[in-house]
Amino acid sequence: MESSVLKRNQKRIMRTFRVRKNVRGCAEKPRMSVLKSNQHIAVQLIDDDKGLTLVSLSTTMKEFRDKKNKKSKETAKIIGLKIAQMAKQKQIDRVVFDRGRYKFHGLIAELANAAREGGLQF
User: Which of 58, 66, 84, 95 has its CA 20 to 30 A from that of 33?
Assistant: First the structure.
């Protein structure tokens, strides 16, 4: 009998692949992948054809170190706006949103809406 931790991790991996099988990024329209841990939020723009990360941003970076609450809706909004700004600098205006295993709710929704406000289309 498998332990509950192994089952939970296996379900998480399957959920991620179930979402990602329909989401594919290219150079013109990269995949915007979101990662949420217990303390931090990270976002990457990925070109799946070449296997390159074009832009990345995380609360573990230097500019967010002095923030007290690194995983909040305000921080997610800031990250969404900054990732949109960084994408605009690389002439990227359209992306494919990859929510991973997370529901489009709370922090993920705030980040996505802020990225839309910043000018990204998805």
Answer: 66
Report whether 32 contacts 55 (CB < 8 A).
no
Whether the CB-CB separation of 32 and 19 falls below 8 Å is answered with no
As given in the structure block, the two tokens for residue 75 are 């921080």
Alpha-helical (H) ranges within the chain are 4-20, 73-89, 107-117
Per DSSP, 121 falls in state B
Q: Which CA distances in Å does 122 have to 21, 23, 39, 113?
A: 17, 12, 27, 10
Whether the pLDDT of residue 1 is over 70: the answer is: no
What separation in angstroms does the CA of 43 have from each of 19, 50, 85, 102?
A: 16, 18, 13, 13
What dotted CATH number matches 4-117?
3.30.420.100
Question: For the chain, first and last CA: distance in Å?
Answer: 43
> Rounded mean pLDDT of 34-39?
93
Instruction: Say what the pTM is.
Output: 0.85
Would you say residue 23 has pLDDT above 80?
yes
